[in-house]
Structures are given as structure tokens and as C-alpha cells.
Design goal:
The protein has one helix at residues 3-41. The protein is mostly helical. The chain crosses the membrane at residues 20-40.
Length: 42
Amino acid sequence: MTLTDLQFVAALGVLTMKLLVLTFGALAITSMAFVITAVCKR
């Protein structure tokens, strides 16, 4: 493992984390909106 390899792996890790956060955020927002609409329709 050279330094550039480590930097590449670190950048990949950061990108993966950002993607995971975005995905979970979108899921949370969608489920929240779904719950709100369900409550309002009652």
C-alpha cells in the first residue's frame, strides 16, 4: 500500500459514507412524509 493507494481508499470511504447518509436521509424523509400524510388523512 502506497500513500496514493491510502488516499484513494480514504476518498472511496468518504464517498461511500456520503452516499449512505444521503440514502438514509432520503428514506427518513420519505417515511416521515408518508406518516404525516397518513395522519392527516384520518
